[in-house]
Design a protein that fits this description.
Blueprint (H helix, E strand, L loop, with lengths): L2 H14 L30 E6 L1 H4 L5 H8 L4 E4 L7 H8 L3 E6 L6 E2 L5 H7 L5 E8 L2 H10 L1 H4 L3 E3 L21 H12 L13 H24 L6 H9 L1
Parallel strand pairs: 1-2, 1-5, 3-5, 3-6, 4-6
């Protein structure tokens, strides 16, 4: 085989090979679904540290990364063991910070049932509020906390969602479960007044706007697939029908 034939055959193989999607470096969505144009950064006066399990980070709609892109002063860290993570420990050990973990439990502060006076008593207005958000399945979140006693020993926050999750392209394990971006939105709603964040400006509503934009875009793609394949009912399409 001469060089010309070799190069021609290689070009044919490259043309026939699977073409992988390019991803936006910021929102990590495929280039045709990039949400950066509808993302508006705002400062919630809360430092959210989003700890994303590697399996969660690789999902089609990874809401932890999307939330991070919407908020100033936030952090997005990927991993499952944060015991020796330099940034995590620096934030915890900083005397200017008051750190919490968003996680339910008997000792957790239930924000939905707290009066403004109770919140002001529990949360020091003279310190920067830092909330660690575990981004992963319940099983992975449990494991992440077990491996990270520096986090599991922090005081915990929780709340009761006002409405069910709108994550219609992914089935939630329980009716009270929310996506990471929805949970952060609820926290801002519950803590905004305490942190002198002007809720009336509705800047934080962009979290839900971007999230809903992604969900609707994914639903349209599912509908297109169904149409192209002659109305074949996929399992997730049946789930969507049940949710309507």
């Amino acid at each position: 085989m001469n060089k010309e034939t070799y190069l021609k055959n290689r070009k044919l193989r490259e043309d026939r090979a699977i073409k992988y999607r390019n991803r936006c470096e910021d929102c990590w969505q495929p280039d045709f679904s990039c949400v950066c144009s509808v993302t508006r950064k705002f400062d919630p006066n809360i430092s959210f540290v989003i700890l994303t399990h590697p399996l969660e980070a690789g999902k089609r709609i990874a809401t932890g990364r999307i939330a991070y892109n919407c908020m100033k002063g936030s952090y997005f860290l990927r991993g499952y063991d944060f015991l020796k993570h330099a940034l995590v420990n620096r934030l915890i050990q900083d005397d200017n910070n008051q750190c919490f973990v968003l996680y339910p439990g008997l000792q957790a502060l239930e924000l939905s049932q707290c009066s403004p006076a109770d919140k002001n008593k529990a949360i020091n207005s003279n310190k920067k509020l830092v909330i660690f958000v575990i981004d992963g399945t319940w099983g992975n979140a449990n494991k992440m906390l077990r491996l990270s006693p520096n986090l599991s020993t922090l005081p915990k926050l929780c709340f009761t969602p006002k409405t069910p999750s709108n994550f219609r392209v992914r089935k939630q394990p329980k009716s009270f479960c929310l996506s990471t971006i929805e949970a952060i939105y609820e926290l801002i709603e519950l803590l905004g007044d305490n942190r002198n964040f002007d809720l009336q400006k509705k800047e934080h509503h962009n979290l839900l706007h971007v999230f809903n934009h992604l969900v609707e875009d994914q639903i349209k793609k599912i509908d297109t697939q169904i149409h192209q394949r002659g109305g074949l009912q996929y399992r997730n399409r049946q789930y969507l029908d049940r949710k309507k």
